[in-house]
Amino acid sequence: MASNLSAPHFHNEEAAFAFVEARVWPEGPNCPHCGGVERIGKMGGKSTRTGLYKCYQCRKPFTVRMGTVFEASKVPLHIWLQAMFLIAGSKKGISSNQLHRTLGVTLKTAWFMSHRIREAMRDNGLFNFGSDGGVVEVDETFIGNDRTIKPLGDKRGRGFHHKHKILSLVDRTTGRAKSMVVDNLRASTLLPILKENIAKEAAIHTDEASQYQNLSRDFASHDFVRHGAGEYGRGDVHTNTIEGYFSIFKRGMKGIYQHCGKAHLHRYLAEFRYNNRVAQDMGDTQRADIALLGVVGKRLTYQTIGA
Ligand SMILES: [Zn+2]
C-alpha cells in the first residue's frame, strides 16, 4: 500500500514541476510574457533553475510558477504541493501554525502560503445552486466578533449585532454548500446575493425570518418552517441539512480561526466550503488536484492580502 504522500511530486522538485506543468499547461508551455506558444525551449544544464523555459519569440525566460499563486516565492514547489494537499484534504482546516510545524517553513511563510492556497481554492461559482429544480436551504449564523462594530448597550457579548454574520446556502441534491460574510441581514442585502447564487428553478427552504419573505417572487417556490412555533419540519420542508452544516462549520471555525478579522474571513470560508462538499464523492488527492487548477492566474502578494 502506498501513502498518498509518497508520490514523487511531494518530494522531488523536478517531479513537482512536471506535475504542475501537466495541469497548468495541458497543451504544452505558453509564455506568460507574450502569450506565445511556439518557439519555446526548455533550458537544461546543471546550473539552470528547475523548470526554466525560454521563449524565443520575446526572448524572455519563464517557469510554470509565473502568473500563479506560486510566483515570487522561494519555497520549493514540492513543499507547496504538500501544503496544498494538507489544506485541501483537511476537514476542519489547518492553521498557519500547524503548517509551519509540519512543513518546517517559518510561521510567516506558512501564513503567506495558506492564504495563497485559500485564494486558489476560492469557488468561482461556475454553476448555480438548485439549477436542477431541487431544494436549496438558506439560513444565517453568527460567529466571532466583528471588531469594527460596537456591541449595543452595556450588555457586552450578548446578542449578535456585533458578530460576523454569515449567510449560507446548501444545495440538497449535490451537497454543495457556500457561505459568505454579509454586512447585515436585511432583505435588500440578501436578495441580490441569493439571486446571484441560486437558479430561478430552485425550491427555497428557510425559516420564518422576515428577510426571507417574498422569495417566491424570484424562485420557483419558497417554503419555510416556523421555528418560533416549535415546528422543525413538514415532510421534506425543513432546514436540517443547513443546521447540520452549521454545527460542523462552527466547530471547524472555533478551534482554528478564533481571532479572525473580517478581511480574512471570506478566505477561511472558501477553504471550509471546499472541504465540506459532503455529497460529492471526492478523495483528498482529487481535491488537492482541483485546488491546483485554481492556482492559474491568481497572483496574491503581501499587499493584496493585507495584514
Ligand atoms: Zn514570450
Explain the overall architecture.
- By secondary structure, the protein is α/β, with parallel strands linked by helices.
- It contains 9 helices and 8 strands.
- It has helices spanning 13-24, 77-89, 96-103, 107-121, 187-197, 240-256, 262-275, 284-293, 302-305, and strands spanning 40-42, 53-55, 61-62, 135-143, 164-171, 177-182, 203-207, 221-225.
- A hairpin with a 5-residue loop joins strand 2 (53-55) and strand 3 (61-62).
- Helix 2 crosses helix 4 and helix 2 packs across helix 8 (284-293).
- The two termini are 43 Å apart.
- The structure holds zinc ion.
What's the helix count? 9
Helix-strand topology string: HEEEHHHEEEHEEHHHH
**Strand order across the largest sheet:** 6-5-4-7-8
| Bound ligands | zinc ion
Secondary-structure content class: alpha/beta
- The tally of strands reads 8
Content of β-strand: 5-15%
Average pLDDT, rounded to a whole number, is 79
Low-confidence stretches: 274-282, 296-307
- If you compute it from the alpha carbons, what radius of gyration comes out, rounded to the nearest whole angstrom? 22 Å
Q: Helix fraction?
A: 25-40%
Biggest sheet record:
5 strands, mixed
Shape descriptor reads elongated
